[in-house]
Amino acid sequence: MFSILRHANSIKYLKSGSCLFTVCILLPLQAYAVTPDYDGLIMEARAGNRAPLLQYLQAQEQQTSLTANQVADWLQVSEWTDNNKETLRVWQRYHDQIAIPSRGQIAAARAFRNEKKWNESLAVWESVLREEPDNADARTGWIMTLADSRRNEQAITEATRWAQSEPGPDRDALVAYVYHAQGKNWDALLAASRAETEAPQNKNSQDTLVAALSANRVAGPALDMSENLADADPMKRRLELDAAAEIVRAAFTPARNEEERFIVADKALARYDQLLAAWKNNPDAQSDVRRARIDRIGALVVRKRNAQAIAEYESLMADGGNVPSYAKRWVATAWLDEEQPAKAEEMLMSIYYPHGPVAVTPLSADDHQDLFFAHLDNENFDAAKRQVDELIKDSPYLRRVYGSPTPQPNDTWLLGQTLLTQYEVASNDLPAAEKHSERLARTGSGNQGLRITYASVLEARGLARKAEQELKIAEVIEPSNMELERQQAYVALDLQEWKQADELTDDVIARSPDDTSTLRLARMRDIHKKSELRLSGSQGIASDSPVSGEHDFILNSAIYSPPINDNWRLFTGFNFATGEFEEGKGISRDLAAGAEWTSRNYWAEMEISGRNYGDGQKIGGRLSGWHDFSDNWRIGGNVERLARSTPLRALRNGVSSNGGDGYIRWYQNERREYQLSFAASHFSDGNDRIEYGLSGKERLWTTPHFTLDFTPGIGGSTNSKEDVPYYNPKSDFAVVPALSADHILYRHYDTVWSQQVTGAVGSYWQQNQGSGVITQLGYGQRIQWNNVVDGGVMLTWDKRPYDGKRERNISLAFDLNVRF
């Protein structure tokens, strides 16, 4: 019954034949008929053909005065045609002239009510009740109008009093209508259920219960009860749409795995396909077709058919008309999944903040997260921080629950703290993120998600083993948690635990194959299993250096196979170097092949090379490796026969070298690390060289798009011989403090374009030559694309002394790493 509240022309329902609202005073076969045909016109009007009677009355009005009963007939039949304006026009012309019977007054009162002229309608209802206090139709209409006009207390009082004095299903149905008008849908459902229980065969009781179920989103049972409605009936279509929308809402409910949600979403999509096919050619159903297309977007988003959901939305907008906010939220989610955060952010802001900084409605937890990640993904860090700050400010740690004397933990507070951690990670403030996430994980030890977040921050800081320990603790709570397994898989990749990474990734893919987070993890695993091309080198532009010579060019290259049995990769490479010296041009060519082995805490490479540097083909070899003791300490080194580090000028003069090097690295986190290195070489001319160095990095300044590092370097060497054809100081030492700046010019998910600026001023000392100044400047740019391409160039200018003379060098260095 009370579904009519949602329709301006509420009188349609009253003609449905219900006991409560049926027209109880039918047009009589008038004994006072003016013509013998009048009775026939009345019969036609009652049968549905109302135009002849209305035309007759209009003509009769011009010829003679109408009787009170004729006016009542006119009002009633006009009201049957839903012509409220004509009904009220007749009423305004005659109600002050003649005493119109109650049936005519009731028709006028209904017309006033349909036009939402509540006061006029109430006045007519009350006039009828003064004359006929037992008129059930009039009392029903009066109470319904009280409810429509928001006179809530009076409406429920009158409806309840009448139901108590004259119990019955019709009275309970009226109470249900009043409750619904007040927005108390559960109370309305109780009253409607009581009416249906008392008279299950009563059509009015059934219709009232159907409307109550629909209002409470219990659409399935409502649809089942409406089987007596024709498929073309608007109410039947509305219930069909409500039932389909109920399936869509169920598809958004968290489930044990993604497959269960997909089954529900597929059921919804199949139902929408049936409805759209049945209604597409029905002109009266086009508004229902549009609603079906709108609600169907939700099922498409759950099913990860994002491109189709976006296309449907754009088609709806092109057709004109409004798309409700709930559907726009779905489209925003689709845009985020399709990596179009600018569109998602713009749409969500238009929904929540259309008029400025104050939200039009309170945001739910899902609303906050969607908008927050739209800000972050669109690199709008200021907006993301404002949102988090406002959420935390408005969310106390504890909240009062009505009826409970004990304050309860506030989930919104926890959401704000979690989003703050995500902001700190995205804005490159990893120390704050670690401190914050650790405090949350320690104080909320039973919350698995907090410990997973803490582990992800540790991994972002390069502390994979510590992250692994935290995830192992989190595993106790729910070992099969998919977010836990995803994070464990990432950590396993960092730790070179290849089999473990495969098992975790395969399990997550089996359980949620189309989830965005799963697809990203699967891609990272797939990238690891690709072949790899490495290129690096430099091109001298202007150089006076006795080490590299003029017009120098260096190219190092290697191609690695996909992993074999997880731990092995084969590779082959080609290296080339050339430069002009006083004694002539030097050229070196290397063709190498070997194998790489990786496992937890270990990396090793074995290489055999054929070297040609002007003195025939010679066989060289190399063995390199490192071992991680922990997240913080690494030791490594390599030994070489015919070392590639041999100066080109020495090779030009037929001098080769064998040697080895070792290093110890201490890594605190991404902001601080130091490395101590040592190398020894024995040249074929009898010279023995010892080299040592200390390098490091200290982060000075960090913003979301900019970092500034202090990179000090200390190094020196000694040589046993001096009279050699290559630069070979007896002893030298250099101290070169430097600054390195990195600025992100553009970033879109895994595509980053950045520029680098370096500068250094230091001192160089050479035995028997004194000391001099070293100055260096560099500018470069780097592109990282989709995790498979990483390449950059750097233009460097430096000036330093060699044998007491300052020499200038301008060169272009490049590197490229491609996975394919």
UniProtKB/TrEMBL annotation:
Residues 527-820 form the PgaA membrane beta barrel domain. It comes from the Bacteria. InterPro entries: PGA_export_porin_PgaA (IPR023870), PgaA_barrel (IPR049003), TPR-like_helical_dom_sf (IPR011990). SUPFAM superfamilies: TPR-like (SSF48452). This is Poly-beta-1,6 N-acetyl-D-glucosamine export porin PgaA. It comes from Cedecea colo.
